[in-house]
Amino acid sequence: MSGVASLGLRSSGSYGSLQQSNGQSPAPAPSPPLAARKAGKMSFGGAGAGGRGLLFARICKLTSRRRRMLLLLLVAAAVLFCFLFSSLVSKDEDAPPGIETMLGISDQVRSFVNPVWTSSGRPITQGDSLNGNGLNTASQTEKQSDSDSSHKKLQGLSWSFPPSIVLEHHPCENFSFFPPPIDRKRTGPRPCPVCYVPVEQALALMPGAPSASPVLRSLNYLSGDNLISKESNHGSLFGGYPSLEERDKSYDIKDSMTVHCGFARGKIPGVNTGFDIDRADLSEMWQCQGIVVASAIFGNYDIMQQPKNISVFSKDTVCFFMFLDEETEAAIKNTTTIDNSKRIGLWRVVVVRNLPYSDARRNGKCLPDLKAIVMLLVKANDAMLNVPKLLLHRLFPNVRYSIWIDGKLKLVRDPYQLLERFLWRKNVSFAISRHYRRFDVFEEAEANKVGGKYDNASIDYQIEFYKREGLTHYSSAKLPITSDVPEGCVIIREHIPITNLFTCLWFNEVDRFTSRDQLSFSTVRDKIRKRVNWTADMFLDCERRDFVVQAYHRELWEQILRSPPPPQPRLVRQQPRKMLPDNTAKEPGKASGSKRVSAKRTRDKKSGSKRAHRSKVTGGKEFIQL
Questions:
Q1: How many domains does one find in the chain?
Q2: Which of 49, 157, 232, 410 has an alpha carbon 20 to 30 Å from 481's alpha carbon atom?
Q3: For residue 392, which of 409, 410, 404 has the smallest C-alpha distance?
Q4: Can you give the pTM of this predicted structure?
């Protein structure tokens, strides 16, 4: 039974007994002789172990002591590796499916599903609600249930993450740009080919850390209760009436700054500040992170467009928010049902109340002049749209990237593809398309006056003010800047302090002067560019037209539907002209002759004769010759 003893139940004559009697410790056994030690070693390869022990003994005899030590070290290393690997796998299987155990997901993708953190260092959960001062914390039971539900949500989300991809070369590095193909039927601006990468590859190319913000590290915003205007051309109450002195100081970029940036009447944007939002909607907006696609329709001015070609992964991780006023909401409810989740397709609808700049729209409807009414309505609508368009970083404080599209546009590309193409590939933090035709601010100002976009006096005042500050016509001397006039219907940006400062100062300009953001864009950009190494990237308008499709404004579209269709040309069958004498009806005797002539002409037409008919007039009478 030496084989059995070698498995652990040793007799008293072995190294020591493992059996205890009556709960007492075993007595120490005398040290075995050397022959017994050799027998124990040889028993390892006895009947129980088969030929494996004999093979091991022979290997030990043939090898030297140094080689045996090396062999034992290799075996120990292999055993240690197997033990660590098995413990890691068992730990991953037993751990809850939280964020930290999502193996195979990159850090930058993992950060998109992390809980949102408040300024106090506590994550916002579903159990939190907003009040006038900040956040109310729910009970521990509610937070625990919300945590469990969030874990389940993340577990389901982890299955939709695309597999990780390692790219040695960028798929679009050999892509050659060429202008849109010639189309005789479409002479206006058209889309041009753009090279996008698949969503999986775009995720692999996502930066792991936020872009660097030059000089500026911390940006705060001014607010107050008793705001009084001290200048004639001062802006609005929503903007906080910044003075010209405060305007000049806001371009003195430092490590930490505090500037005007809308929502000046309160500390929480959307809570009694103008542009007011329900607390439940605001709480959901604060929980949005990673990427947000935002748009707005005010005054029932546009028809809501649903995004297309959006991947399943983007539907799970990207927020789609559509801001509406009460007038637009009422019009949509007449044709569309909004469910309890406040969603219409991909859009999460947010109704905004107490809109700033809405007085001009209400007062404009009472004017007798139709042209003045249209001008004021457009002016008020543009001013209201500038709030979510330029201040998304204030409405979504936890978002890393944002894509703004006007309400008349339909998004037809995946958000991750757009971010990779226009931000990550170029290593920029702000991208906007340039105007398809105009590059000069002075030309844009004249076009706005001709189109009745704003009153001429306000446009002239703004341009003259900028001229005194050094505004010049665009020329090749400004290269690599390619244009001074943007097409502001699409903005793609990363939310870092320098881009937030740029959009804040841009909003202050449209608040002080005209709401035509194309006129003030280059002034703000150039002032910041002179002080820090940063600028806004401008891509081609034909590239923008590749990922958004423009629709008609609601008023124009309804006018097209109401207008009668153009008259179709009527095909009238022409009867053969009868060439008869004028006095045939007056002279009955010649009626038979007329019949003969008519019959003969009919025979000629049936026979396919192409002989010309010539008429000859003699003495006031017309005779027919064949």
A1: 1
A2: 410
A3: 404
A4: 0.67
